[in-house]
Write a structure and sequence with these properties.
Length: 180
């Protein structure tokens, strides 16, 4: 066991880190603004114009953060995907994260260039959040362990438990290796 016990679910699989969820939700704030504005009937265009005076920026940022939304959906539905026998989706996590970071940075930098590189706090905060996500995702031992653990349909601890049950009483897999 490489991680603390709270990093594993009931089945023994590594859970995604909480910081990853929070970073993805923060970077998907454009989607949250869109959903909340759509929920307020009759005030949608007024609320969106408050946050996004230029409508093209909203569309560009929604497209740029789409990989983050897909990543959140994959992480949130991992149990359903495993029950159906799908395990290859895990290979999409890192590419989606990195593609989302690049696209989100571009979506922040392009409007800054149009404003003649005037400093604004909101794009600066999103650029910083994207850089933190990229560096943390590349360096995280938790994500590397998660990625390695999710290769299998069943966690390694479940495979070892099944091996103990199938062996004769008192002769677990470790004892059988010693006797050979």
């Amino acid at each position: 066991m490489l991680l603390p016990l709270h990093c594993y679910d009931e089945a023994g699989r590594v859970k995604p880190p909480l910081w990853l969820y929070w970073m993805l939700i923060l970077l998907c704030s454009d989607w949250l603004a869109l959903v909340f504005s759509l929920l307020t009937f009759g005030k949608t265009s007024e609320l969106l114009s408050l946050f996004y005076p230029d409508r093209s920026q909203l569309g560009m940022r929604l497209l740029a953060t789409l990989p983050f939304v897909v990543t959140l959906l994959l992480l949130g539905n991992r149990e359903r995907l495993w029950k159906r026998g799908w395990t290859e989706w895990r290979k999409l996590i890192y590419p989606l994260l990195m593609m989302g970071v690049v696209m989100s940075i571009l979506a922040q930098v392009l409007p800054m260039g149009q404003d003649h590189w005037a400093f604004h706090w909101t794009p600066a905060a999103f650029l910083l959040a994207n850089l933190i996500l990229a560096l943390t995702a590349l360096q995280s031992i938790h994500l590397k362990t998660l990625y390695a653990d999710w290769r299998y349909r069943e966690p390694e601890s479940a495979k070892l438990a099944q091996a103990d049950v199938t062996e004769p009483a008192g002769q677990g897999p470790v004892q059988n290796r010693a006797q050979r």
